[in-house]
Design goal:
The complex is a heterodimer. Chain A is α/β, with parallel strands linked by helices. Chain A is built from 17 helices and 26 strands. Chain A folds into three domains: about 210 residues, ANL, N-terminal domain (Rossmann fold), CATH 3.40.50; about 190 residues, Rossmann fold (3-Layer(aba) Sandwich); about 90 residues, GMP Synthetase, Chain A, domain 3. In chain A, β5, α5 and β6 form a beta-alpha-beta unit. Chain B has one domain: ACP-like (Non-ribosomal Peptide Synthetase Peptidyl Carrier Protein, Chain A, Orthogonal Bundle). Classes of the chains: A alpha/beta, B mainly alpha. Chains A and B meet through α10, α11 and α16 of A and α2 of B.
Chain lengths: ~500, ~80
């Protein structure tokens, strides 16, 4: 019985030791490199740390991935952070975790000095040749069970404090087995990874690569600004499988790139996190008529993706691509206001039941218990479901459709964002009296309105120190007065109308 | 040129776009900015920006963007 994700690696390293596992074109690490480095790193860390969160601060590179696995081999769990996260957010993460160690490379070690963190700093370069202590690592493996954590990733929280989602071996194995079946991954798969390594989305490439001895290219972020260069990159490296956010795909199609050059090796295009406008989708489908297109849906709290839809028919321009059906070994419960199963066509909250549920939010039982709750359809024994806060309904084909959010959470450039977190940062700007954030669904822009004695420049500069890049409002506007509803709340409906 | 500076300032009010000539090299503009910028330029100047033009050197400064727009307007 498999109980640890590293068993995937151990299997692949026996079969294909010299095959490239992860590369960014500069560094190429084969399965043997990944295995040896991870075990060296683990041998070093495990001398004094066990069952602790260990921060990995290294940027997007194949080396970073070996640090992740090194932490897992040591019986600890990794927490990826990145310079793209603003100073304030990283401080909040340190505060919540109180980590005993940070692994970083030489470059990031300098950046780390600017933070209030004063625990142990482990330099990646110093530990990758550490002698491997097989006996100790085997001993750790024997003691570990499949509900031990692997990682914590942080997502936006409406109060301004990010939430750390803790995932375990069991949930990741369950997710990866189901996902790989749907995507039909095998040893010939060449992934082109788009998402950063500090979000759970990158598991889609990282773990199936281990399981099937596939290869993952980590595509440099800068290429996602320049569509022709990006397509060149895909073709040069014969990339055949991509799991990207919709905005990365539409960036290519909307500029007319596909008329000039086709990413001709692509066989599978999985997408998600946002609605795919059908006009753009059709450009892709016409350019690659033999490729498979799969819509994926799922929250970080259920490890990754929970449902899928293989596109098998034409869609009208005003239609939406369904989020489809639950993965194998996952059940979707669509619960209406009375906590009963919604009828066909009726709207309800999408709730998830299954082994893929993560362990909850780190150091935060209150917020965990709000959304990981007893299944209301079962009053006989303990059984958790995760309430996503997403509203859905089934269409006439029995496929699940995403309808809307219950709250102020949005999806922007593939990231999950609480508008409340932006507002709470904006309200900290000296001179701001009140601030409100709305999302322009049509133009896909985050717009911040504020009232106060400060300039747009002040607000913009301040927000850049508090929020990740993708959460910075795309437009900031100063108002004389904030529109209010009759009971004195900020009138977001009116603010949204002002956008038009 | 003023219109281009205005469009850019809307995206990043704190940047001095008159002077900065490393908008791409210093990662001041990101992927969202490019998409949004191309849409605004297309509307504002009534031009079509072909994908061959969406390359780093055409977006590194307001002047470079201006040059590209002028060239496309003439076509």
């Amino acid at each position: 019985m498999q109980k640890n994700i590293l068993e995937y690696l151990e299997n692949s390293v026996t079969l294909y030791p010299d095959k490239v596992a992860y590369t960014d074109e500069i560094t190429k690490l084969n399965f043997k490199d990944v295995y040896m480095r991870a075990r060296s790193i683990a041998s070093f860390i495990s001398t004094d740390l066990y069952k602790e969160p260990i921060v990995v601060f290294m940027g997007k590179s194949p080396e970073t991935i070996t640090a992740f696995y090194g932490v897992v081999y040591s019986g600890n769990y990794y927490v990826p952070i990145d310079e793209e996260m603003p100073h304030h957010r990283i401080e909040l993460i340190f505060e919540s975790l109180k980590p005993k160690a940070v692994i970083c490379n030489k470059e990031k070690a300098d950046v780390l000095k600017d933070f209030s963190y004063n625990g142990k700093v482990i330099l990646y370069e110093d530990i990758i040749n550490e002698p491997i202590d097989d006996e100790k690592l085997n001993d750790i493996r024997r003691k570990q069970i499949d509900i031990d954590p692997i990682y914590i990733v942080f997502t936006s929280g409406s109060t301004g404090t990010p939430k750390g989602v803790v995932a375990c071996h069991r949930s990741v194995i369950d997710y990866i087995e189901a996902l790989s079946d749907v995507l039909d991954i095998n040893e010939k798969t060449v992934f082109g990874n788009q998402t950063p390594l500090y979000v759970d989305a990158c598991l889609k490439e990282l773990i199936p690569t281990l399981k099937y001895a596939a290869t993952t290219y980590l595509i440099p972020k800068e290429l996602f600004m320049f569509p022709l260069q990006l397509v060149d990159y895909l073709n040069k490296n014969k990339i055949n499988t991509i799991c990207w956010v919709v905005s990365a795909l539409t960036m290519i199609s909307s500029f007319g790139t596909l008329e000039k050059e086709i990413p001709k090796y692509l066989e599978l295009i999985a997408f998600g996190s946002e609605v795919f406008p059908i006009k753009q989708f059709n450009l892709w489908r016409n350019a690659l008529p033999n490729a498979k297109f799969i819509n994926l849906y799922g929250p970080t709290e259920a490890t990754g993706m929970s449902t899928y839809y293989k596109v098998d028919r034409e869609f009208e321009l005003d239609e939406m691509i369904p989020i489809g059906k639950a993965f194998n070994n996952t059940e979707i419960l669509l619960l209406n206001d009375e906590n009963k199963l919604a009828e066909l066509g009726e709207e309800g909250e999408i709730c998830i039941r299954g082994t893929s549920l993560t362990l909850g939010y780190y150091n935060d039982f209150v917020r965990t218990n709000e959304v990981f709750v007893q299944n209301p359809l079962n009053d006989k024994f303990p059984e958790l479901i995760y309430k996503t806060g997403d509203i859905g309904r089934y269409n006439e084909y029995g496929d699940l459709m995403f309808v809307s959010r219950k709250d102020n959470q949005i999806k922007h450039m593939g990231h999950r964002i609480e508008l409340g977190e932006i507002e709470s940062a904006a309200n900290m700007v000296p001179g701001i009296k009140t601030a409100a954030c709305v999302f322009n669904d049509k133009k896909k822009k985050i717009v911040l309105y504020y009232v106060g004695e400060c300039t747009l420049v002040d607000v913009s500069l301040f927000l850049k120190t508090k929020l990740p890049r993708f959460m910075i409002p795309n437009k900031i506007k100063c108002l004389e007065n904030m529109p209010l509803t009759s009971n004195g709340k900020i009138d977001r409906v009116q603010l949204k109308q002002q956008l038009l | 040129m003023d219109i281009i500076i205005d469009i850019l300032s809307d995206l990043h009010p704190e940047v001095d776009f008159e002077k900065c000539n490393s908008l791409i090299d210093d990662k001041i503009l990101d992927s969202f900015d490019i998409v949004s910028l191309v849409a605004d330029l297309t509307d504002e100047f009534d031009i079509a920006i072909p994908v061959e033009e969406i390359i780093p050197k055409n977006f590194n400064s307001a002047a470079a963007i201006n040059e590209m727009v002028k060239r496309l307007e003439d076509e």
